[in-house]
Amino acid sequence: MIVGVLGAGQLARMIALAGYPLGVDFIFLDPSADACANSLGEHLQGDYNDPRLLAQLAERADVVTYEFENVPADVAEFLASHTQVHPAPKALAVAQDRLIEKAFFRDISIPTAAYAPIDSFESLEKAMSTIGWPAILKSCTMGYDGKGQSLLKSVDDLEPAWEQLAGAAGVVEAFVTFNREVSIIAARNVSGAVVFYPLSENIHRGGILRVASSCNQDPMQQQAEAYISCLMEALDYVGVLALELFEVDGKLIANEFAPRVHNSGHWTIEGAETSQFENHLRAILDLPLGTTTAVGKTAMVNFIGGLPATEELLVIANVHLHLYDKAPRKGRKVAHATVRAETTEQLDLLVKQLTTLADQVDDS
C-alpha cells in the first residue's frame, strides 16, 4: 500500500513513522530539497502544481492525503479525478479561506465570534461600528501560527493593520474573552466510523501553540464532539480533523478547523492507545479505527526556533522527545516533547520543567 502526501514537513514525517509498522510506503511531493520527511519515503521535489509530478503521484499512490491546508485546492481536485484523495478537496477549500470557513460554521449551526468581510479601509472602518473593540483583523488566506493577524485596540490601529494586509481580502472578528482555548480531534474512515480524542487544552503565545494537555472526562467534551461530528458530516470527511474552540462561560465558540493531523494532538503518540497519525492512516485506508483512550495524564511542549541539549530534556522523568530534523530558525517548530504522569500535580511540574527549557531557546 502506497500513500502519497502533499508536503513533507514534520506532520508528514510523523504520519510516515506511524505507517511503517502497518507496512505502508510513502511518496512525498514537496518543493523543498531538505524537507524533513524525505528520508522516510520517496521524494518528488517540485511545485505542487507541477503536472509531471502530479501525474506520477496519481499513478503510483493508492490514496493521497496532505499535511497542511495551504496546498492549492485545484491540485487536490486534479488528483481526486485520478486517484483517491482524503480528506476531500472541499474540506481543503473551506479551510483555506477564513471568510468561507466562518460562513460554513454558521450554516451548520456552529457558533463563532461576530465577524465581517473586509475589502477596503472604508469597509474596515464601517465594520468596527458593529464588531466593536477590541477586534482582530486577519487575512482570509495563508494565515497560520499567528501570521496575517493584527490586534485592533483603538482607531489608531486600523491604518497599520490595513497596510499589513497589503490589499488582500480580510475578515475582522470580535475579540473573544475566553476562559481557555481547547481543541478536539476526531477521525472518520471511509465507511463512516468515527472516534474522538479527549479534548486538548492549549496555550498559545504569539499565535503559536506552546503547550497542549489532554483533558480526560472534560465537561466540554460532549459539546465539542457534537460540533466536530456536525462538521465531519457536512464535509463528508475522511481522515483526522481538528477543531479549535474557545470556551466562554461554559459554552464553546469555534475559531477554526484544520483538515489534517494537528499540533495539539501530538500528545496522542505516547498519551493515547492509538495516535492521531495512525488513526489518520487507518481512516484514509478504510481500516478499523483504533481506540482513542488516554493513557494517564499527558501534555506536549513545543520547541520554537531552537532546541535545548538533548541530555537536558531526556534527564526529565517520563519525557518523550521528537526531533523534526529541521534547522533552527526564528519562529520555526523544530521539535516537541511529551510527558506523562499519574496526577495533575506531577504533570504540571514536568510541563514547567520543559517550558523553562523551551523558553531559554525560544526564537519566535
Short description:
By secondary structure, the protein is α+β, with helices and mostly antiparallel strands. It folds into three domains: 2-85, Rossmann fold, CATH 3.40.50; 114-174, Dna Ligase, domain 1 (2-Layer Sandwich); 180-361, ATP-grasp fold, B domain (D-amino Acid Aminotransferase, Chain A, domain 1). It is built from twelve helices and 18 strands.
Tell me what you see in this structure.
- With 364 residues, the protein is of the alpha+beta class.
- It folds into 3 domains: 2-85, Rossmann fold; 114-174, Dna Ligase, domain 1 (2-Layer Sandwich), CATH 3.30.1490; 180-361, D-amino Acid Aminotransferase, Chain A, domain 1, CATH 3.30.470.20.
- Helices cover 32% and strands 29% of the residues.
- It has 12 helices and 18 strands.
- It has helices at 10-19, 51-60, 73-80, 89-95, 98-107, 121-131, 158-165, 221-235, 268-271, 276-284, 310-314, 344-361, and strands at residues 2-6, 25-30, 42-45, 63-66, 84-85, 115-118, 135-139, 149-152, 170-174, 180-188, 194-196, 199-205, 208-215, 239-248, 251-258, 297-304, 319-323, 333-341.
- The strands form 3 sheets. Strands 10, 11, 12, 13, 14, 15, 16, 17 and 18 form a 9-stranded antiparallel beta sheet that branches. A 5-stranded parallel beta sheet has the order 3-2-1-4-5, sandwiched between helices. Strands 6-9-7-8 form a 4-stranded antiparallel beta sheet, with helices on both faces.
- Strand 10 (180-188) and strand 11 form a beta hairpin.
- The chain is globular, with a radius of gyration of 20 Å.
- It starts with a strand and ends with a helix.
